[in-house]
Design goal:
Layout: E1 4-7, E2 10-13, E3 18-24, E4 33-39, E5 46-51, E6 55-57, E7 65-70, E8 75-80, E9 89-96, E10 108-109, E11 113-118
């Protein structure tokens, strides 16, 4: 049983930056694969980034977003730079006992946090 609590969403102008945080409960956080997904209005869920012992990014965010984790704080971050209006979406933190890929159905989800990028 894992609880994920997200923060950091908001409204930002195109070209700006935001950092999302996801704080996890429970033990053995370092053994979970963690990731971020997003869902834009009228769109299906989209993989954004994942981290375990390495990192993976969607092509659409590569070079702009950085996923990181602080295992001591049981927190995963998504640093989002050079934001574009098309990044507007609800962003969800996710955790999985195995791995997170673009086709994953993670074991645990956060509540979602709205990111809105104005043009």
């Amino acid at each position: 049983q894992v609880q994920l609590v997200e923060s950091g969403g908001g409204l930002v102008q195109a070209g700006g930056s935001l950092r999302l945080s996801c704080a996890a409960s429970g033990r053995a956080f370092e053994m979970f694969a963690m990731g971020w997904f997003r869902r834009a209005p009228g769109k299906e869920r989209e993989f954004v980034a994942a981290i375990s012992w390495n990192t993976d990014y969607a092509d659409s965010v590569k070079g702009r977003f950085t996923i990181s984790r602080d295992n001591a704080k049981k927190t995963v971050y998504l640093q989002m730079n050079s934001l574009k209006p098309e990044d507007t979406a609800v962003y969800y933190c996710a955790a999985d006992h195995s791995r997170i890929t673009p086709m994953s159905a993670p074991d645990y989800w956060g509540q979602g946090t709205q990111v809105t990028v104005s043009s």
